[in-house]
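Lab meeting tomorrow. Please check the following:
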Amino acid sequence: MIYLHENNYVYIDLKPDNVLVFDNNHIKLTDFTTIYIDGYNRNIAGTMYYIAPEIIASKKITDKSDVYSFDHLITYLLNITVTNNNANCDDIELATFINKCCDNDPNNRPSFIELQNSSLFAIDNYCIGKYIFSSINSTSPILDDSLNSNLI
């Protein structure tokens, strides 16, 4: 996501169906048909549950729109409910992360670089990836990594 955002692309449709996970936990995105290119707005489409409110309201689309979608992807994978932008989660750090990412004001959401640098994604600390990959590995088929070379 950081690479896309550094090149002025907004993915818009970040959801489980568009994320491939390989047996080494390597992740690839698929379906770039809804991508927003800075300065060029095609017809916005996507999956309503994952689309940020500013896109639905035809307001400015930014990289923070993808953060909103990422939040919904995480809550889906971890089976966490969010009501009125409050995560129903026992882990305070995770709940705070979710609440920031699903804020209706994109200016209050962190960027993917800020997310990457947060303690939730630190390899040597509490790692949200452990939750995500254990959830994916227990419920979803994992693709053989030999297919990895055929994807972007």
User: Anything to note?
Assistant: The radius of gyration is 15 Å. The chain has a mean pLDDT of 76.
